[in-house]
């Protein structure tokens, strides 16, 4: 079993990843500013309060770690202004991982980041840009920084996130020709992320995750 660092562990996909990793038997270091409030049981959970934009916090959190899941998010209220969290946090994390020798990085971005932007359907394109444009411009920069690294990375681009339990019936779209937007439960995204810790088959690749497809 691996010793896994989850960055952005207090909510959303990050919290679901902590839950899934513990269920799979991994040791988990849950990193977030509000990590002390994570209400999950188990001796394999270490709550690690820290700031993803603080190099000292990130460096300390990487000690003894086998793999990193980066699952950052920003509140909806922050989407109306400039968004820099994804690129700036990645600009701290990547060199810290390279320095400490932690090679495996599984980073959550989203459908519409990087080259998946080209396949956003015409009905979705305008509202997507109006609501999420600033965040996804920053996710583009995040992905570029990861791609240029020496790490064993995988970029994970989920579609529109939903709540609820994991279904295990989601689709992993590896081929760019198959990429399209869809719905997927956060718990299913977490299931996929944890599976990648021990799976080298998608190192150096970007995948889209969906359950049900949305209209183009």
TrEMBL record:
Gene3D superfamilies named in the record:
NAD(P)-binding Rossmann-like Domain
Which residues does the UniProt record annotate as the domain NAD(P)-binding?
8-199
| Pfam families in UniProt | NAD_binding_10
State what protein this is by name.
Epimerase
Species this chain originates from? Methylobacterium radiodurans
């Amino acid at each position: 079993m691996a010793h896994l660092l989850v960055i952005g562990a207090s909510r959303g996909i990050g919290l679901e990843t902590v839950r899934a990793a513990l269920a799979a038997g991994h040791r988990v270091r849950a990193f977030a500013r509000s990590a002390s409030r994570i209400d999950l049981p188990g001796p394999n959970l270490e709550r690690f309060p820290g700031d993803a934009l603080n190099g000292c916090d990130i460096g300390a959190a990487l000690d003894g770690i086998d793999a990193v899941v980066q699952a950052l998010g920003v509140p909806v209220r922050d989407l109306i202004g400039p968004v820099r969290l994804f690129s700036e946090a990645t600009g701290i994390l990547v060199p810290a991982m390279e320095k400490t020798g932690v090679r495996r990085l599984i980073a959550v971005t989203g459908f519409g980041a990087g080259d998946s932007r080209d396949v956003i359907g015409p009905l979705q394109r305008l509202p997507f840009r109006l609501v999420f444009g600033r965040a996804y411009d920053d996710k583009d920069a995040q992905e570029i920084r990861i791609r240029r690294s020496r790490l064993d990375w995988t970029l994970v681009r989920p579609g529109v996130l939903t709540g609820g339990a994991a279904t295990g019936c989601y689709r992993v779209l590896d081929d760019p020709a198959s990429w399209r937007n869809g719905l997927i439960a956060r718990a299913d995204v977490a299931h996929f992320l944890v599976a990648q810790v021990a799976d080298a088959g998608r190192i150096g690749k970007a995948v889209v995750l969906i359950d049900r497809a949305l209209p183009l």
